[in-house]
């Protein structure tokens, strides 16, 4: 009997974790955060001179940024909700009011990443790539992101 109770508890806890992990609001936040950590936390810091140029770090960051962008895009098909708990930003309802424009911006982001990720062999190239991709990010954030 005790064993059954323990197994039932583990199942319920496991199911709760699985539901929490599959929550589109939390997943969206996680992917956007992952993208930001690599882009702003690594590449933009180098471009601003806040971190030394590190070619290995640059090469490691781009695939992670690209993967997070690809994972994030389809997560916005779900209802807007309020965003992930304790998130600094939430998705704006404008996303679902003009979904075609929002989706097109992810296509533009993917193209900007693809066009720039191979052009970062020097600090000057990183600065140019960060400027180009950052402009795409900022344009979307200005229209479709709400500060909490």
Structural class: mainly alpha
Counting DSSP H or I runs of 4 or more residues, the number of helices is 6
Q: Into how many domains do the coordinates divide? A: 1
| Secondary-structure element string | HHHEHHHE
CATH level 4 superfamily: Cytochrome c/b562
- The assigned CATH architecture is Up-down Bundle
Major β-sheet strand ordering? 1-2
Shape: elongated
Specify the helix fraction band.
over 70%
Mean pLDDT: 85
Whole-number radius of gyration?
19 Å
CATH class, named Mainly Alpha
Low-confidence stretches: 4-11, 13-20
Q: What can be said about the biggest beta sheet?
A: 2 strands, antiparallel
What is the distance, rounded to the nearest whole angstrom, between the alpha carbons of the first and last residues? 47 Å
Regarding quaternary structure, how should these chains be classified?
single chain
- CATH topology, by name, is Four Helix Bundle (Hemerythrin (Met), subunit A)
Proportion of strand residues:
under 5%
- The number of E-state strands comes to 2
Sum up the structure in keywords.
about 150 residues, mainly alpha, elongated
Structural write-up:
The radius of gyration is 19 Å and the shape is elongated. It has a two-stranded antiparallel ribbon. The chain is mainly alpha-helical and 148 residues long. It has one domain (24-147): Up-down Bundle (Four Helix Bundle (Hemerythrin (Met), subunit A)), CATH 1.20.120.10. The model is unreliable at 4-11 and 13-20 (pLDDT under 50). Helix content is 72%, strand content 4%.
